[in-house]
Amino acid sequence: MPLQLFKRLLPVTALLLSGVSVAHAQAGAAIPPPIYLYPNGAPGALGVTESDKPRIYAFLPKKPSTSAAVLVIPGGGYGMVAMGYEGFQIATWLNQQGMPAFVLDYRVSPYRYPVEIDDGRRAMRVIRAHAAEYGVDPNRIGVMGFSAGGHLASSLLTHCGDDTLPEKKIDAADSVTCQPNFGVLGYPVISLTGSIAHVGSAKNLLGETPDPKLLHEYSNQYAVTDKTPPTFIWATTNDPVVPVENSVEFYTALVHAHVSAELHLFDYANHGCGLCGEILPLQVWPSLLRRWMFDHSLLTPNAPPLPSPEPNSTAWPQGLIGPGKPNQ
């Protein structure tokens, strides 16, 4: 084993001995083994199957170009998790530019609030608590979410103040903040109420007869403050699933709160295309994000070049198990 690789594995081995299962994959390699967020069983678990065990997958680049990292949250309407093209493929794209990425597979319906939000919070805390083992700066960890994953990501951006630390701490990770340092939202669900709400996400997250206070609280355009992290947003104006006003209202709230924000809208009708490599008008959005990351010093000028556009992978990789698997 090369000495450099051996040195990189030493802290990971130490983390394994601490009871948290850790593994990583290089860009283009196989999917890494899961890191269970709750090694001794998740709070509120409905059972003990893989559907009840939220986890992250750590993708670490061969040659890091930055100490920043991203928690990637795929969408799926809180009814499934599109781990392929909105998760693993995004992580590989980030790895190819030298950025570490962690893909979240979180519990979905029949689970209800606060489970999904807490899985996201726990994922951010686990990454931050073990940042040194990953070669990551704990103060440069962002979140990237798509569709309903964008709702979960925007919930972390707006609902992770110091008062959200768990009353009952599982381990040291629960003593650190879940607040991301920056956000990236792709065609996100933001609102759970009113004419622009995504009804399916609201139903799966909060149930058939949700508390009106929760509907408003997690319509995240209303939760933006001047402490919300800088955010990049993109969507299509004729999105047939999630009204574009979700993106517009969140961006507007950021501007009114004097938060650094960037919004890109494409005159197109699409929802759920991930990197959008097969859609010529949309395949430019990753380059816009890359530029934004340069502007915010999340990538450095010596980062590897932008990968070429590529077709989407499947929504759920064959043979993969986990809480977000469709039709369980």
What is the structure about, briefly put?
By secondary structure, the chain is α/β, with parallel strands linked by helices.
Features:
Rossmann fold, 29% helix, 9 helices, globular, disordered N terminus, 328 residues, nine-stranded mixed β-sheet, single chain, alpha/beta
How would you describe this protein?
This protein has about 325 residues and is of the alpha/beta class. The protein has a single domain (about 5-40, about 45-165, about 185-295), classed as Rossmann fold, CATH 3.40.50. Helix content is about 30%, strand content about 10%. It has nine helices and nine strands. The protein has helices at about 5-15, 85-95, 115-130, 130-135, 150-160, 200-205, 210-215, 245-255, 285-295; strands at about 25, 35, 55-60, 70-75, 100-105, 140-145, 185, 230-235, 260-265. Strands 1, 2, 3, 4, 5, 6, 7, 8 and 9 form a nine-stranded mixed sheet that branches. Helix 2 (about 85-95) links the parallel strand 4 (about 70-75) and strand 5. Helix 3 packs across helix 5. The longest helix has 15 residues, at about 5-15. The protein is globular and about 45 Å long. Residues about 1-25 have low confidence and may be disordered.
